[in-house]
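Q: Got a minute? One more chain.
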Amino acid sequence: MSTVLNPYLGFRDTARQAMDFYKSVFGGELTQSTFGDFQASQDPAEQDKIMHSQLVADNGLTLMASDTPNSMEHTPGNNYSVSLSGDDEGELRGFWDKLSSGGTVTMPLEQAPWGDSFGMLVDKFGVSWMVNIAGTPA
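A: Always. Here it is, folded:
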């Protein structure tokens, strides 16, 4: 798997509807997981919220999205990140190190509930980034 760069959109309780809409626009395969699927929130009101959604269109376009947890700020217009994902750990950790230099790490790059290494940061220019390194297949 090569490294993939794509937009990652954040919503407040409407990720499922938004991604269904984008699927109607772009076509392709849509997968969605909730916070409850991964026991990723202690808040009962968040169990059915979308923790991760991915649309891969037949032409290769990729769009990801999630619902922002209640405990996190959500500001329409600033509700996006750039996502880097793949299985080349060296390459992705190198990107992480360079992007985080002079920036702010908002979630350390470490093992996530879904088995991959995941982290979030804001670079020195104010751009939000997510890095996901695929775990070793079982």
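A: The helical segments are 15-26, 89-100.
Q: Perfect, thanks.
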